[in-house]
Amino acid sequence: MLSFLLRRIVIAIPTVILISIFVFGLQKLLPGDPILAMAGEERDPEVIEFLREKYRLNDPIPVQYLNWIKGVLTGDLGISLRTNQPVTELIGEKLPVTIQLAVMALIFALVIGIPAGILSAVKKGTVTDYIANVVALSGLSIPNFWLGIMLILLVAVKWRLLPASGYVPLSEDFSRSITTMIMPAFVLGTALAATLMRHTRSAMLGVLKSDYVRTARAKGLAERRVILKHAFRNALTPIVTLTALLFGELVAGAVLTEQIFTIPGFGKLVVDAVFNRDYAVVQGIVLVTAVGFIVMNILADAAYFVLNPRLRKQ
Amino acid sequence: MAQPATPQTIDPQSAADPVLSARPENRVWKKFRSHKSAMLGGFLVGFFILMALMAPILPIPDPVATDWGAVRKAPSAAHPFGTDEIGRDVLSRLVWGARASLMAGVVSVGIALLAGVPLGILAGYFGGWTDSVISRCTEALLAAPFLILAIALAAFLGPSLGNAMIAIGLSATPIFIRLTRGQVISVKAEDYVEGAHATGLPTHRILTRYIFPNILPPVLVQATLTIATAIIAEASLSFLGLGQQPPAPSWGSMLNTAKNFLSQAPWMALWPGIAIFLVVLGFNLLGDGLRDALDPREH
User: Fold this and answer.
1) CDD domains recorded for this chain (chain A) (predicted)?
2) Which of A137, A306, B181, B299 could form a disulfide linkage to B120, CB 3.0–4.6 angstroms apart?
3) Do A137 and B147 touch (CB under 8 A)?
4) Looking at beta carbons, which residues of chain A come within 8 Å of B277?
């Protein structure tokens, strides 16, 4: 297990290095010279030279990259041009908000997607299966920001059941924090639920055809037990892997969801940064999400390993 | 000299022949036609394409003409879908907005195909170092979430519909590199490719005559499904203000303004969302149907 994980981590290293080169390259793609913007109206050559020296922009590009990566490795992602706060600090502040949103969304997705997938596989070809498939495909086709707008219109504006927007930290008021987050989490969770449902269905269909399910039925086990204990346990492996891989979708979906419900999280941070041309923040976020995705990938492999006894013995 | 990739040709007379109609193309078409949801998808997509093409000749008001006498008017005979915050006709903006959405879907997937398929073929066919370099870069790009990457690129390129299409296209490229590479590797091992090698056919001929036609079906399916993703991505970027710029109409930017007038003018938010939903559903159904029809295992 340990050697397996180590091997996965070693394989991931070149990928991470490449990502960092891409992210660094983005900054060089930028039209215009940031120093000229910083130097102000007068553009005093001495000031410009001083700033160039200060930010070490006179070094060759590979050296600049090495300087930057040295900072990144020690947790220094640069300074936000907008707030003058370190990017690491900004991300650290916003991340818990988005994590709460993502975890709640994932709960929605799992609670809706997996049972629907099992049901639809067990009842393959029936009306139930058909309806589940139509709902899932619709879930995949609805832009989640529009779903959010419609829910605000109905649930918050018309029925006044839940707050339309805002955020209350968990530590401040637990129940209010959860209630304000229910709608955004549901919106973010629907598309994932649809993906999960479709994968659960196909994994279950594969397993239900297998010999051991036939054997379990032949020896007279209750159908419920056959499905949950024999079939589902075995279909679980690909589902767990997929759930870890949904991380990317969660983060991307969070950007729009947070925008609609004005939640001060990671997604709001990146959108604000984009509009304020706060490139250090954009870079930091792309780097952090990409590395986060790779970590989730490794965890998914590890989960695969743990859940699959055949791999463990090797 | 021309050697057909697959031993089938279609002539109009053979279609009626019961034996000949078992040919792959006919079989695929037959299967596709019997696939109700795929036909529905085709109908939806066709409807929106028609709508986009006919926008200039339809009897609807100018989509950018403002009318201060009719600001945020509820749906009526004059404006079946109502008007927006500066009195523009919502139906008309919806019809013209189809152009931005469909264009974004098709052009960005076109970019992804043009960049991704050749790279995938290179990696899959030649293997070795070429493959390692291309594959590692693909993995690195795939690690950044699709929309985050598109947002970052659009931000660095500057907000416009064209740049949004480039950003979405580049973000979708790794999907096609990976898919093509995998397909090429499996097709390369087939006997007919080995045979072509043995006859001394030059590489570029093997690639265009034997490899390319055989990797096409899965690439086509993926392209159709990616158009759906790209349309949502364009709407998302426009919603964030990074796509189509005002006053030109796009469904995403219509929703962006609509969200500020939810309680006063809910119709502004309703229709663009339904339009995005239907066109995306159409491409998703079409892609699913194509996959079933083209899947050789299902015959």
Assistant:
1) TM_PBP2
2) B181
3) no
4) 138, 141-143, 146
Residue B7's pLDDT is what? 42
Chain A's closest residue to B286, CA to CA, is: A137
Higher per-residue confidence, A211 vs B34: A211
Please provide the DSSP assignment of B76-120 as one string. -SSSTT-B-TTS-BHHHHHHHHHHHHHHHHHHHHHHHHHHHHHHH
A95/B contact by beta carbon, under 8 A: no
Whether A143 sits inside 8 A of B152 (CB atoms) is: no
**DSSP bridge partners of A79:** A86
Model pLDDT for residues A136-157, shown as the tens digit of each residue? 999 999 998 999 999 999 998 8
CATH number for the domain that contains residue B194? 1.10.3720.10
Residue B233 lies in a domain: yes
CA angle B149, B153, B155 (to 5 degrees): 115
Closest Cα in chain A, distance from residue B171 (Å): 13
Any domain includes B262: yes
* Chain B residues near residue A29 by CB distance under 8 angstroms: 156
B18-53 per-position pLDDT tens digit = 444 456 677 778 877 778 888 999 999 999 999 999
ipTM of the complex: 0.85
Q: What is the pLDDT of residues A123-135, one digit of tens each?
A: 998 999 999 988 9
What was the pLDDT predicted at A7?
Answer: 86
Rounded distance between C-alpha atoms, residue A216 and residue B213, angstroms: 45
Omega before residue B247 within 30° of 0, cis:
yes
For testing the chain A interface, which of B37, B135, B151 should be mutated: the one with the most A CBs within 10 Å?
A: B151
Residues of chain B with pLDDT under 50: 1-21, 298-299
Domains by residue range for chain A, with CATH: 91-261 (1.10.3720.10)
**Quick one: tokens of B11?**
């002539």
Best interface-test mutation with A: which of B148, B274, B297, B298 has the largest number of A CBs within 10 A? B148
- Predicted confidence (pLDDT) per residue in A213-227, tens digit: 888 888 888 888 888
From A143, A279, A290, residue closest to B232, measured CB to CB: A143
Q: Do A286 and B149 touch (CB under 8 A)?
A: yes
The helix/strand/coil state of A279 is helix
Contacts of A255 in chain B (CB under 8 A): 147-148, 151, 240
- DSSP structural state of residue B296: G
A249 and B CB contact within 8 Å: yes
* pLDDT interval class at A40 (50, 70, 90): low
Q: Of B227, B244, B226, B225, give the one whose Cα is nearest residue B235.
A: B244
How far is the CA of B80 from the CAs of B52, B76, B96, B190, B252, in angstroms?
A: 18, 5, 15, 58, 20
Q: Which of residues 97-156 of A touch B (CB under 8 A)?
A: 137-138, 140-143, 145-147, 149-150, 152-153
Number of domains in chain B: 1
CA distance B84 to B97: 14
**Contact A259/B at CB under 8 A:** yes
Is residue B169 a contact partner of residue B229, using CB atoms and an 8 Å limit? no
Residue B132 with chain A: CB contacts under 8 Å: none
> Which 3 state secondary structure label does DSSP give A283?
helix
Has this prediction a pTM greater than 0.90? no
Domain limits at B157?
A: 35-58+81-298
